[in-house]
């Protein structure tokens, strides 16, 4: 049984939950009194416009794109610079108010839910791209800069930031959740691409994790503070700047699609393509249920069997070689219908199925909501876990088309579920738990990309084991002894 | 036919920047603000390069008018595939007062000097939204014009242009030499990749003055004042429909 919020409770009447959260605020008279006394202090730091008590604003800042219920904070602040963030944090610390950093609200694990109320730091006004160094392939950005905004800024320089989690997320938010994406197989995740962070701790101190302004491509200096904060989901500090590693925009791109007789054949092809040294940029797996959904949604006519969607980046010459190698491999594994395209329009058409996957899944059962699982296992275990998972779905009459970043061994079951059917919600809940445990049993993780947030705290304990969790708790206590930084996330409350 | 195409590229404040008016209301803040190539000029460059890749034309020459920084914009055009650049140096008060009339005189003079077969411009610049330079250039040269082009095809010594107009699409066939202006849906401009940016550093940019071309840059326009759009006021909530109607009457809307 998952401790914390279960899927069924999450999807139950949103209004009921909203009322619950509202009454938390009014009942907590002690908290209300504290808030009233600090509001003027907040206003003196970030201005009248920088403090909002509006219901709509608080609701907007209490939810993300997950199925977790909205838990609005008591107040939303809009600081304009790191000095303001630091002063505001000091006030919150002095009055023991929880602090919840907010980027774009595009997370998938309830990371911005203010489960204990508190103060939301909305960082969207800090939206400058600072310090671009073209020759060094690095740039520093503030939390209000999203990945699409950065790439638009960089478009004349020949450089780009390739980590692409789908949503147009805040880059500092992506650092906070250790985001990944479809081209991690070639360009890595946030862990590999953050060179330095500026972080404000709960007591207001400002730390530069690799030293102020430093951006060497590699370092052996001291403890790796940068990667400690990457993935900390706002529980250790507020990220106010991130220095990112940039890459050259690919000279040319080729997209390809191929159908396979079985999941095993598709995964075998993936492994062999990687082993052959092809620097494949994206390799996405869609199962037959997903292909069927996409055919219906986008009026396509792909063969309804497991399929791979591939993308290659490189110079004109190298692309031809990459595509030929990949085609030979897929053929030798029983692949058929290998199509590829070079020009933007045809590539767009070939990849439509993959781009529309989320909406195609929702369209399978109009009126339902979708929840994405996120397990990740070593590549060699992928066929087994996919086969067992699909059997589980069929046996339990669940709708869960699968899309996977097979190059990383990571896949998502898009569980399409009727939020008004508690029995189905319960079945989905149990399925998700079984899936997570299946992945853990195969040396994997319960979350490859989305983070722990609210819903995976118990699974984290199973995955890490009590000793590692203890170490994490000690780190948390060292940074944030009063547990003010985004309480209720990543770590379960201590047994008292 | 010379097979040479002139493409005008303008350096403007980047489209993503929040524009601020100077405190003295004489213009907008440009110091320290990110600038880039006007998006419609990017589309014009892309079309010219595509024509060259399909071997309809032989050479693409990128032209920009302005101070030293205009060369950055030309370099971007070169990285996209233009062959060489011409920087027409205009600085100080002349640059501040430079508008479509001055630029069209420059383009006309260069077109004659370079024996251009086509001039392709963006339909308008995103800073002044004038949408005049292409039309004025054609008039000065007495050349036909295909403006708001969403499709261009060269057919021998004629050009077929599909134009986006209010009523839909209009297809015209005009003689060359001609002036074309690019609309949004003409193409999707390519990104400048690092290897191409490096190659572009070796391509030539010639520098000329309007005086060398025998041109007078005097403007007949004077900017009196620049203001921000009025701030949006907070809305007013009313309790009943009667209240709403009476409030609308009060402010003269009803």
Automatic annotation (TrEMBL), chain A:
Gene3D superfamilies: 3.30.465.10, 3.30.70.2740, Vanillyl-alcohol Oxidase, Chain A, domain 4 (1.10.45.10). GO terms for cellular component: mitochondrion. One of its GO terms (molecular function) is D-lactate dehydrogenase (cytochrome) activity. Pfam families: FAD-oxidase_C, FAD_binding_4. Signal peptide: none annotated. SUPFAM superfamilies: FAD-binding/transporter-associated domain-like, FAD-linked oxidases, C-terminal domain. Keywords: FAD, Flavoprotein, Mitochondrion, Oxidoreductase, Transit peptide. GO terms for biological process: lactate catabolic process. InterPro entries: FAD-bd_oxidored_4_C (IPR004113), FAD-bd_PCMH (IPR016166), FAD-bd_PCMH-like_sf (IPR036318), FAD-bd_PCMH_sub2 (IPR016169), FAD-linked_Oxase-like_C (IPR016164), Oxid_FAD_bind_N (IPR006094), Vanillyl_alc_oxidase_C-sub2 (IPR016171). Its EC number is 1.1.2.4. Its cofactor is FAD. It is found in: Mitochondrion. This is Probable D-lactate dehydrogenase, mitochondrial.
UniProtKB/TrEMBL annotation, chain B:
The keyword Lipid metabolism does not apply. InterPro entries: ET-Flavoprotein_bsu_CS, ETF_a/b_N, ETF_b, ETF_beta_N, Rossmann-like_a/b/a_fold. Residues 25-217 form the Electron transfer flavoprotein alpha/beta-subunit N-terminal domain. GO terms for cellular component: electron transfer flavoprotein complex; mitochondrial matrix. Keywords: Electron transport, Mitochondrion, Transport. It holds the Pfam family ETF. Its main location: mitochondrion. Belongs to the ETF beta-subunit/FixA family. This is Electron transfer flavoprotein subunit beta. It comes from Zoarces viviparus (Viviparous eelpout).
